[in-house]
């Protein structure tokens, strides 16, 4: 697992990749081909698939948008429970997902468009447990003050998830075993919490966005 002590001799750091584009994985393999201290030992399209292959990793490289719709926060937490720290590897075109990963405590964020030597250096630092202070990572941290996490109870998260995904309040009540009045009361409290955090959620569309941002809903799948 990740630590601050360099590997002895020629034993390379073990890297896992969570990425659903074979071209991106091939690109990473090419970048690390001339780096004897770094080796990709496993690649998968989801975190669960990677951990089923191996947990003996010094670092996981994580794409933010995956085919199972999982949230960056959930993925980082799942990897950390397995004792593995994370470096985000992203196109960087969805800032809210980068912010979510930064809040989850990743070691850094590196863009797929970076030069190979920059990517290799970032992987090496992260595999040794060091923060990778790129501009994307710093910007995500700085923006966090304007993107305060809203703490919802498990029941509030359930109600928000159902309602924001398109269910009417009456249907949410039936699915959750609550009365419709109780569901509406929950929604009012949820909206109030987001308003107090400076993240308005007045409409159903805004509630949907907030649920995505905080990982209460699965990330929409890519359209190919």
Structural summary, described in words:
This protein has 224 residues and is α/β, with parallel strands linked by helices. The chain has 2 domains: 13-146, Response regulator (Rossmann fold), CATH 3.40.50.2300; 154-213, Orthogonal Bundle (Arc Repressor Mutant, subunit A), CATH 1.10.10. Helices cover 47% and strands 12% of the residues. It contains 10 helices and 5 strands. It has helices spanning 22-32, 47-53, 72-81, 95-104, 116-127, 135-143, 154-164, 169-176, 180-196, 204-213; strands spanning 13-18, 38-44, 59-62, 86-90, 108-111. Strands 2-1-3-4-5 form a 5-stranded parallel β-sheet, with helices on both faces. Helix 4 (95-104) links the parallel strand 4 (86-90) and strand 5 (108-111). The radius of gyration is 19 Å and the shape is elongated. Mean pLDDT is 84; it is low at 1-8.
Give a quick rundown of the structure.
The protein has ten helices and five strands, in the order βαβαβαβαβαααααα. The chain has 224 residues and is α/β, with parallel strands linked by helices.
Q: Which class do the helix and strand fractions yield?
A: alpha/beta
CATH topology of the largest domain: Rossmann fold
The helix tally amounts to 10
What proportion of the residues form beta strands (DSSP E)? Answer: 5-15%
Q: Biggest sheet, open or closed, and with what strands and sense?
A: 5 strands, parallel
Q: Name the overall outline.
A: elongated
What topology, given as strand order, has the largest sheet? 2-1-3-4-5
User: If you compute it from the alpha carbons, what radius of gyration comes out, rounded to the nearest whole angstrom?
Assistant: 19 Å
